[in-house]
């Protein structure tokens, strides 16, 4: 079914939003300076007008009135001022009577800009999850990749979300610090994740994007890429340091060499044992081939 929606540029969304209706609320990413990311480099950031968004909502509700889940794109729709975002959520609630959840990408800076009351209001209007790119818990690596925040600021912003009862899905990027910073990246990421205590955690493995600063750093030898087995060792080191209350853990993105699923409060020791077994055997064919990997 072809639905006449306006959409500028390529579509990016979390894997778990594959069946959600995607509506574009912002163009690009308000930060757009991370050295490893090439997703929004061709877009100039702006907020779409309420009129544009309302038109899309009206159009799509005619065709898909029973929609239950919606993802608001682009890079970090949580940056939208709270009053305007509430208007969008309320319009979605009116247009889709069976709506269960709205999801967004967010930057750590977006959480810092909103207070707990604002986040609670957004949650009451069915904002049900924020996908947050942590990337790393290392202060040095955060600075190197130009993330624009410190570990302390990330902890402060995510604490607001937890206090508001707004679930977080955190992403960490393995291999981001190269071989030189692998141990610090793993240890410090686990430390910061323990502070955040997210409901969901996903690990991706770095696939340097041509044209980005990070890609050039690897090409020029300023960073040393991790082998597939070294990436697995980094993941093992990170998992060993985690102590989370009840976190659904996934490392089954297309970029990962070894698909992993676990609930860390229940499965952590079994997962560590399995990682040790795979690392000890290093059996041919145990890991995904490069041909099958993707962003």
Which features characterize this protein?
295 residues, alpha/beta, TIM Barrel, eight-stranded mixed β-sheet, two-stranded antiparallel sheet, 40% helix, globular
Blueprint (SSEs and pairs):
Layout: E1 21-24, E2 26-27, E3 46-47, H1 50-63, E4 69-73, H2 82-95, E5 101-106, H3 108-113, H4 116-124, E6 127-135, H5 139-144, H6 151-164, E7 168-174, H7 182-196, E8 200-205, H8 213-219, H9 228-241, E9 248-250, E10 261-263, H10 264-281
Parallel strand pairs: 1-4, 4-5, 5-6, 6-7, 7-8, 8-9
Antiparallel strand pairs: 2-3, 9-10
Helix pairs in contact: 1-2, 2-4, 4-6, 7-9, 9-10
Give a short overview:
The chain is α/β, with parallel strands linked by helices. 40% of the residues lie in helices and 16% in strands. The radius of gyration is 19 Å and the shape is globular.
Description:
- The chain is an alpha/beta fold and about 300 residues long.
- It has one domain: Alpha-Beta Barrel (TIM Barrel).
- It has ten helices and ten strands.
- The strands form two sheets. An eight-stranded mixed beta sheet has the order 1-4-5-6-7-8-9-10.
- The relative contact order is 0.10.
- The mean pLDDT is about 95.
């Amino acid at each position: 079914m072809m639905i006449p929606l306006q959409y500028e540029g390529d579509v990016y969304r979390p894997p778990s939003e594959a069946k959600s209706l995607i509506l574009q609320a912002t163009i690009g990413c308000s930060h757009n300076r991370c050295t490893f990311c090439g997703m929004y480099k061709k877009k100039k950031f702006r907020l779409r007008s309420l009129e544009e968004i309302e038109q899309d909502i009206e159009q799509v509700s005619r065709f898909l009135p029973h929609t239950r889940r919606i993802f608001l794109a682009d890079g970090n729709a949580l940056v939208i001022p709270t009053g305007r975002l509430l208007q969008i959520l309320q319009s979605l609630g009116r247009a889709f009577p069976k709506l269960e959840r709205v999801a967004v990408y967010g930057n750590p800076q977006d959480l810092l800009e909103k207070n707990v009351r604002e986040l609670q209001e957004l949650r009451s209007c069915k904002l049900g999850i924020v996908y947050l790119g942590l990337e790393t818990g290392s202060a040095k690596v955060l600075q190197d990749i130009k993330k624009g925040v410190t570990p302390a600021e990330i902890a402060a912003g995510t604490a607001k979300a937890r206090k508001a009862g707004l679930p977080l899905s955190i992403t960490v990027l393995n291999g981001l610090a190269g071989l030189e910073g692998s141990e610090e990246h793993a240890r410090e990421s686990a430390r910061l994740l323990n502070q955040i205590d997210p409901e969901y955690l996903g690990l991706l493995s770095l696939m340097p994007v041509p044209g980005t600063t990070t890609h050039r750093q690897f090409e020029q030898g300023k960073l040393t890429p991790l082998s597939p087995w070294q990436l697995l060792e980094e993941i093992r080191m990170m998992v060993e340091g985690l102590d989370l209350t009840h976190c659904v853990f996934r490392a089954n993105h297309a970029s990962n060499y070894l698909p992993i699923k676990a609930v860390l409060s229940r499965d952590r020791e079994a997962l560590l044992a399995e990682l040790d077994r795979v690392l000890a055997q290093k059996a041919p064919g145990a890991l995904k081939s490069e041909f099958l990997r993707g962003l």
